[in-house]
Amino acid sequence: MRIIIAGGGTGGHVIPALAIAQQLKKQFGAEVLFIGTVRGIETRLVPQAGFPLELIQVGALKNVSLMTRAKTMFDLPRAIAASSRMLSEFDPEVVIGVGGYASGPAMVAAIRRRLPTLAFEPNVVPGFANRMIARWVSAAAVHFEETCQYFPHCRVTGVPVRSAFFSIPPKAGGVPTLLVFGGSQGARAINQAMIESLPGLRAKVPGIHIIHQTGQRDYDHVLAAYQQSGISGEVHKFIDDMPGTFGRADLLVCRSGASTVGEITAAGKPAIFVPFPAAADDHQNVNARALERVGAAVVVEESNLGAAYLVDTIAALIGDGAGLRSMSAAAKSLAHPKAVEEIAEMVERLAHAG
Fold first, then answer.
1. Among 139, 171, 182, 194, which has the minimal tally of Cβ within 10 Å of its Cβ?
2. Global confidence as pTM
3. One domain for residues 236 and 195
4. What is the pLDDT of residue 253?
5. CA atoms of 317 and 326, how far apart (whole Å)
6. How many structural domains are present in the chain?
7. Is the Cβ–Cβ distance between 61 and 128 less than 8 Å?
């Protein structure tokens, strides 16, 4: 079986794509080629994972300047043509679009050639690339039931998440522990709000322990604030063992990108989401609200991220054991432990149907 996976840009696109590629290779002995762009994280992660990567030149159309949009429109026909040549050379049985800059041109090329196509969409509202090709794809694998309104042939599979997140045992008692993170690069707004909240948390939740991943740029500043606050805390630039760290936490404060949401539902962890306000199509806010509606999370808009409000919200949640258990169960109800296997089976069926 030969498969092309197109898209990337951020970890939210690339990490699930790699999980799908690895499952296809393991389960069906598939040969997988990635199509990406030079500006995406795929240029580092895909070769590291041992998969070949071809690059096309295309940029963004949404939330960019008129000049950038004009350049992208100029590049688009060439990107579709380049993708079509790659399809001719590799001769895939199925093309998978995971969203991101490279996804659109490659999927358009595949649809034009009448190849079986699968769109993977982890957000409630599909990104621009997946929205543009939604009605023409052979099938779609999504995380949320609401997303199926965009795709004629849709299945709720969930997001591929490392198995370690599914095997985290419930935290039973001990020191009330808060985990704060903003993705691998950190989130300056969350970092600053937490610094301003430390005195209030020390007063309202005197026994609290905080584990805080800051990212590289804010590390020294945040570390100094914790040292001066007298609060019990661990400050890290990066956390390598995130499943293990999830297991130590009673409550999370974080962004709400698709991969983070998938990990939180897998682990069954209560969360305070602070959606990134500049995310394309406001998808982080929509993701967070989907969990809030079922009682798994509380959403705090970045514009409301004042110290007093954050302290009150953390104190109310972390001190309510029954409430945390209820939120945990609600999060778990949205988990999909067999996501990557189900997606691989969809691909295999499309390959045989084609």
1. 171
2. 0.82
3. yes
4. 97
5. 11
6. 2
7. yes
d(CA 9, CA 126) in angstroms, rounded, equals 15
Quick one: tokens of 10? 């951020």
List phi, psi (to 5°) of 117. -130, 145
Q: To which residue do tokens 């709400």 refer?
A: 256
What is the distance between the alpha carbons of residues 237 and 245, in angstroms, rounded to a whole number?
14
Q: Could you give the count of Cα atoms lying within 13 Å of 320 in the half-sphere of its Cβ?
A: 13
Mean pLDDT by 10 residues, the chain (354 residues): 92 89 96 93 92 83 53 72 96 95 93 97 87 94 93 94 90 92 78 96 95 93 95 93 95 93 95 89 89 96 92 95 96 94 97 82
How far from chain centre, in Å, is Cα 115? 27
Assess contact for 44 and 184: CB atoms under 8 A: no
* Nearest C-alpha neighbor of 270 from the set 307, 318, 304: 318
- Looking up residue 79, the CATH number of its domain turns out to be 3.40.50.2000
Output the pLDDT for position 33.
98
Q: Quote the Cα angle for 285-320-194, to 5°.
A: 50
Whole-angstrom distance, CA of residue 8 vs CA of residue 43: 9
The tokens for 59 are: 């940029």
DSSP 146: G
Helix %, strand %, coil % of the chain (to 5): 50, 15, 35
3-state secondary structure of 288: helix
- Among residues 75, 70, 8, 63, the alpha carbon closest in space to that of 38 is found at 8
By residue range, what is the domain housing residue 199?
164-332
